[in-house]
C-alpha cells in the first residue's frame, strides 16, 4: 500500500498564510475575542498552524466528534467532548480539517447556532465538492475530488495523522 502526495507540506503552509490573512481581514473591525473551535481529532494540526498566523484576539475551544470507521461514514455523529464555555454573543470560527458528506458540520452548526453566537463561520483545509451538503465554508482551503485522503490530521483508522502533507492511498 503506497501513499501518494496530493498536497505538499509547502502548499499547505502557503494556503494557511492566505487563509489567516483572509480571516484577519474579515474580522478586522471586531474588538472582542474570536472563539476558534477546533474539531478534534482531525483538525488539531490545521488549528495549531492557523491560530499562530492570525493577528486577532483569539480564544481557543475544543470539541471532539467522530463518525467514521475506516473510510466509511456511519452517518451518526458521536460527541466525545463538547465546549467548556457558552458561545452566546461570541464571534465563533469553526476550524475543520475536511468537509466530506457535510454530516459532521451540519450537526455541529445546528448545536452551536442554538447558543446564539454573534457570528458563526467555518474554515476547512480540505473540501470534497462531490456532495451537495449546503454547508457554507467562509474560508475554504483545497477542493479535492472523491479520494479518501490522509495526513495533516486526517486518519485512516487512527493512522497517518502526523504526516506533514496530505496524501492518498493508492
Ligand atoms: O463531512 P463528513 O462526511 O461528516 O466528514 C468530515 C469529518 O470526518 C472526520 O472526522 P472523524 O469522524 O473521522 O473523526 P476524527 O476527526 O477524530 O478523525 C473529519 O475530521 C471531519 O470532522
Ligand atoms: O477523506 C477523508 N480522509 C480522512 N478522514 C475523512 N473524514 C471524511 N472524509 C475523510
TrEMBL record:
It catalyses: IMP + diphosphate = hypoxanthine + 5-phospho-alpha-D-ribose 1-diphosphate; GMP + diphosphate = guanine + 5-phospho-alpha-D-ribose 1-diphosphate. The keyword Nucleotide-binding applies. The keyword Phosphoprotein does not apply. GO terms for molecular function: guanine phosphoribosyltransferase activity; hypoxanthine phosphoribosyltransferase activity; magnesium ion binding; nucleotide binding. It comes from the Bacteria. Its main location: cytoplasm. Pfam families: Pribosyltran. Keywords: Cytoplasm, Glycosyltransferase, Magnesium, Metal-binding, Nucleotide-binding, Purine salvage, Transferase. GO terms for biological process: GMP salvage; guanine salvage; hypoxanthine metabolic process; IMP salvage; purine ribonucleoside salvage. Residues 11-156 form the Phosphoribosyltransferase domain. Pathway: Purine metabolism; IMP biosynthesis via salvage pathway; IMP from hypoxanthine: step 1/1. It is found in: Cytoplasm. GO terms for cellular component: cytosol. Its EC number is 2.4.2.8. Its cofactor is Mg(2+). Belongs to the purine/pyrimidine phosphoribosyltransferase family. PANTHER family: HYPOXANTHINE PHOSPHORIBOSYLTRANSFERASE (PTHR43340:SF1), HYPOXANTHINE-GUANINE PHOSPHORIBOSYLTRANSFERASE (PTHR43340). This is Hypoxanthine phosphoribosyltransferase. It comes from Petrotoga olearia DSM 13574.
Amino acid at each position: 500500500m503506497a501513499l501518494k502526495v496530493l498536497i505538499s507540506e509547502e502548499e499547505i503552509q502557503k494556503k494557511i498564510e492566505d487563509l489567516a490573512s483572509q480571516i484577519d481581514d474579515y474580522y478586522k473591525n471586531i474588538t472582542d475575542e474570536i472563539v476558534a473551535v477546533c474539531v478534534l481529532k482531525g483538525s488539531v494540526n490545521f488549528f495549531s498552524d492557523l491560530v499562530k498566523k492570525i493577528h486577532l484576539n483569539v480564544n481557543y475551544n475544543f470539541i471532539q466528534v467522530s463518525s467514521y470507521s475506516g473510510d466509511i461514514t456511519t452517518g451518526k455523529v458521536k460527541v466525545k467532548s463538547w465546549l467548556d464555555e457558552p458561545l452566546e454573543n461570541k464571534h465563533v470560527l469553526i476550524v475543520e480539517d475536511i468537509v466530506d458528506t457535510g454530516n459532521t458540520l451540519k450537526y455541529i452548526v445546528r448545536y452551536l447556532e442554538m447558543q446564539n453566537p454573534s457570528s458563526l463561520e467555518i474554515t476547512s483545509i480540505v473540501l470534497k465538492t462531490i456532495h451537495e451538503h449546503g454547508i457554507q465554508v467562509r474560508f475554504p482551503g483545497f477542493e479535492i475530488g472523491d479520494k479518501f485522503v490522509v495526513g495533516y490530521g486526517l486518519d485512516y483508522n487512527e493512522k497517518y495523522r502526523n504526516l506533514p502533507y496530505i496524501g492518498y492511498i493508492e
